[in-house]
Each structure stands twice: as structure tokens, then as C-alpha cells.
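hey
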């Protein structure tokens, strides 16, 4: 099974007690970018990998692969947790990316994956660093042309250290003029892929719908 979900989960009680933004939210942009660059890879047969950013319980193994539910858990080392307290904000992206890379490589080695898998993990991290942890993903399945062929609506998903942001661009195909429209008013730390699942021109409107076919955004014909 290909890896399709990745998250870093902290101790929620500790985060709440110490007024810390949840680790999952802090790292959402990294895990989503990493999955994008590392698409269609099989690490250990699981579709979901949870990196546990907390002290490992004594009765737990560091790495758990549930072959029935196709979910894997991996607890980070104690020294990695302790280092978190001293990491400067400017270095947080690199700190958490190193964790993701080390965990994935450790799993790949434990499963005797070939060196090509290790290279892909390293290359994904290199691409993220080269792009300064910023990624804009065109949502081609949501790009639609109006019935009169004049207007082309394109939708984009942006991931960066602030989180996740979505926007649409409406292009006049005659003049090549492009106007940007924000779909989300502010950054979020959750995936909105299912929230903007379908797109169509409905009469004089460009409409986006979620996976349950509910309207989530509309843009009137200019």
C-alpha cells in the first residue's frame, strides 16, 4: 500500500497545559509537502504514518506497524524531544523535516527497502529545502473553462510555514488578464482537499463543492 497520510502528533495534554500550538498543526505544511514530493511510495505497506512526538510508553515498541489497519506509529527518540526546547523559530522547519526524514529512512531500512527508496526520501527533503518550504500546487481537476470559452478558472493550494491557503485565478482568455480571488480568508492547519473537491461552471457562476456535494465557494461571471 502506498503512503497517503502522514502526520506528526504531540502529546495533547502537554500541549494544552503549556499553551503550545499543537505539533500536528505546526508541521502540517511540512508533512503535506513531503507527501507531495514522495508520492506513490511504499515504506512498509501502511497507508498512514503517525510520527509520535512524545515520550514512548514503556510497554510500547518504538515502531509499530499494524498490518490489519495499515497504520504505522513511530516514537521519536528522547534526545530529539529534548532538543525541541532549544530550537530557534527560524530553524523549526529544518528540525521537523529532519525528524520526518530520519523516521522514514529508519522504517525503510527496517523493511529492507532498496537504496532507491532512501534516495527518494532524501530528494524529497532536498526539494523542500531548495524551495524554502514553500509549495504551490495547481489543482488541475478543479480548473474549468466557462461555457462561452472566454473565462478560465484555476484553483491553487499553497503550503508554507504559515500553513495552508487556497485561492483561485480567473483568466480572461481574450485579454490574458488574471484576477486572483482568495478562497480561504486566512491560513489553516488542516487539509482542505476534500472541502474543495469538485468544480464546475453552473450558469453564470464558477462553483466549488466539497466531497458531499455542498457548495463551498462561488465566483460570479465577470
Amino acid at each position: 500500500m502506498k503512503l497517503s497520510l502522514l502526520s506528526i502528533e504531540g502529546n495533547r495534554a502537554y500541549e494544552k497545559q503549556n499553551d503550545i500550538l499543537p505539533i500536528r498543526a505546526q508541521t502540517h505544511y511540512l508533512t503535506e509537502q513531503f507527501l507531495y514530493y514522495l508520492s506513490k511510495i511504499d515504506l512498509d505497506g501502511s497507508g498512514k504514518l503517525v510520527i509520535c512526538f512524545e515520550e514512548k510508553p514503556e510497554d510500547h515498541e518504538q515502531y509499530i506497524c499494524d498490518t490489519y489497519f495499515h497504520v504505522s506509529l513511530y516514537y521519536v527518540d528522547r534526545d530529539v524531544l529534548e532538543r525541541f526546547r532549544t530550537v530557534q523559530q527560524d530553524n523549526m522547519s529544518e528540525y521537523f523535516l529532519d525528524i520526518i526524514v530520519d523516521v522514514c529512512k529508519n522504517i525503510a531500512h527496517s523493511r529492507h527497502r532498496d537504496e532507491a527508496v532512501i534516495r527518494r526520501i532524501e530528494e524529497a527533503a532536498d526539494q523542500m529545502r531548495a524551495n524554502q518550504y514553500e509549495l504551490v500546487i495547481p489543482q488541475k481537476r478543479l480548473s474549468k473553462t466557462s461555457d462561452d470559452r472566454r473565462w478560465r478558472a484555476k484553483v491553487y493550494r499553497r503550503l508554507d510555514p504559515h500553513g495552508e491557503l487556497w485561492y483561485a485565478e480567473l483568466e480572461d482568455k481574450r485579454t490574458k488578464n488574471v484576477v486572483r480571488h482568495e478562497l480561504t480568508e486566512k491560513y489553516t492547519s488542516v487539509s482542505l482537499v476534500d472541502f474543495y473537491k469538485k468544480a464546475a461552471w453552473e450558469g453564470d457562476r464558477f462553483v466549488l463543492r466539497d466531497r458531499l456535494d455542498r457548495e463551498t465557494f462561488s465566483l460570479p461571471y465577470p
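The radius of gyration is 20 Å. The chain is about 25% helix and 30% strand.
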